[in-house]
Each structure stands twice: as structure tokens, then as C-alpha cells.
Amino acid sequence: MPGKTDTNLRAGALAEGVGREILRRFSAVATVPREEDVGVDAMCTLLRRDGRALFAEDSFGVQFKSASVREIRYEGHEARWLRKLDVPFLMGSVDLAASTLQLYSTENAHARYVHPRAEFDLVLCLDAPGRQPIANRCGLYDLGWEHAGPAGAARCWLGTPLLRCSFTEAASPGFAEHAYERLKPWLEFSAESRRLRSYGVHREVSLDGSAQPKAMSYYTASQEGDLNKLLNAVDPLLWRLAGMLGHVFNEGPLLKELRGVRRFMESRGLTPIGLWEDPPEGQSEAKPDGDGPPGKQGRVLVSWMGAPTTPNAETPEEE
Predict the structure, then answer these.
(1) DSSP one-letter code for 317
(2) What pLDDT score was predicted for residue 318?
């Protein structure tokens, strides 16, 4: 608008600016232009410092909200979009007056979408629910969930912030290393959870903001069409496991059981990769490499998938 602007829009833009500048202290930040903003305000990459070098590691998305906003609602397609995000997603709460940023994990927002056809609106809450923690065999924790009511929206507490800092603190020596140590395990946990969800396994994490995230419970739900999809998804892992059992650890009985899984897959019309059998002579073998124990630095496995092994090719070392 010529000659004027909206105070709320300007305050929101200033808050995003404060949040981005704090993030830049420990991550590379790519700002999403407002006209391209579909729910992620910045895409960031965590930086690890080593001397003068900064190494790019885990990427994550951030949405900024003013500190006065304590609940963020996702309806219909918005909730489906949130649950299908492929990168860790953090909520950044910015207090413009104090120039502070609090980062929250949204990991538990996925935990109740266990059933593949689960559909309900979702409200992410930054303030803790006013009820007692739940006790289980893993200890005291609070899932922070209130199930969908008549309005069809479930409320999910995001837990304590992973990181709290002011603009001044972010400029202090050692802050970047501190932020890296706080966020790194959570970003790795979130990425692993995303892989598990692709197999239909959901887990909830402790909400106390611990340095090391802890899975407190696991959930899964299955429907008739899931079996072939799951078998295809785990087939590469089973093939690798079969190779290690047969060539590195010499676990013949276990390998025999895995071959039974292969036959079951074939009976369902699937085609497992690899042969899961001893390959033809000269095409794959376990080679001694030093004096270490099997499965560590002492054995190297060349896997075979039906194609001849390239002569003199480097063989990957099992860790």
C-alpha cells in the first residue's frame, strides 16, 4: 500500500528477521520468499565448526511465530502436509521485545497419525497441558496429547524448547558449538523417525527437552495392502543382513530362516533383490583383512547381486 503498511505484518516480519539472524549463528539459512511461503519460513543446515572450517550437516525447516502465539492450528490439507514433511520441522517462537528465540521440535505431532487413514485437525501447543504426567515402564512422561473431540481437532504439546537464546547470547563465544550439540541428536532422531514412519512405525519422544531424545513408546497399525509394501521396503535390509550372516558371522541357521522369508516373498509375487545364497565361485567372498574379530575390522564382505564383481574393485569395510 503506497505510503503505509500494516503494523501486525511488520511486527511479524521483524520477528522472523530476529529468528533468522539467531539461526545464522549456528546454521546456514535460506529464507523462503513470502510469495513462496507455504508453511516453512526458512530452510536451514546445521553447521559443525572445526577450526576455521564449517561443515554442512543436517538440514531442517523452521516456521517462525510471535511469542504471543501459543497455539498453531493445522486443518484438513494443512495437517496432511505437516505429517508428510520429509525434513525435520522446528517451530521458532520469537519474542521481539526481548530479541529471543525458542526452538521447539514438532516430532510428536506425527505420533497419533498411526492409522494410514487417520484424518483430524491438529493444534500444536507451546504451553504445557495442566495435567499430571503419565507413568510407564520407561519413567514419567507426558505425551501432551488431547484426542480429537467433537470439533475434530487434536491438541499436541510440543514439549520444552530444544534451544532458548537471546540475540546477545547467540553472539557469545561457544554458542554455536552449544547449539550444535543441542540440535544435532534431535535432528538425527527426527530423520530416523521419518524413515520408521515410511514403514508404518510411529514413536513418541520424551518432552522434557533432554539433550538426547528418548523414544517413550511405539505404535503401528496395519491394513491388508501393507504387507507387500513393507516386504519390498525391508528387502534391501534383509539382503544385506543375509550377506553378513552368511559371509561374516557364519550364522547358517539364521540365514536359513531368512531364506524362508525370501520364499514367502516369492509366493506373494514379489522378486527379492540379490540371491541370498552363496554366489558362484569367484564372484563374492569374505576376505580376511587383519587380525580383528569377524564383523569388525577383521572381515570384508563383497556382496553379489547377479553381476560379476569388478576385478580389483575396492571392497567396503564393515564397521
Answers:
(1) B
(2) 43
Confidence of residue 262 (pLDDT cuts 50, 70, 90): confident
List alpha helices for 151-174, DSSP H. 167-170
Residue 307, SS3? coil
Q: Choose among 276, 262, 66, 73: nearest CA to 155.
A: 73
Sheet with 71-74, side-by-side order of all strands:
71-74, 121-125, 153-157, 145-146
Rounded to the nearest 10 degrees, what angle do helices 252-267 and 226-243 cross at? 150
The Cα–Cα gap between 90 and 95 comes to 16
Amino acid at position 218, single letter: Y
276 Rama sector, left if φ>0, alpha if ψ -120 to 50, beta otherwise: left
Grid coordinates of 293: 574379530
- Under 8 Å between Cβ of 54 and 176: no
CB under 8 A, 24+ apart: contacts of 223-226 = 223/116, 223/117, 226/116, 226/200
pTM of the model: 0.77
pLDDT (0 to 100) of residue 17: 92
Under DSSP, is residue 63 helix (H, G, I), strand (E, B) or coil?
Answer: strand
3-state helix, strand, coil in the chain (%, to 5): 30, 25, 45
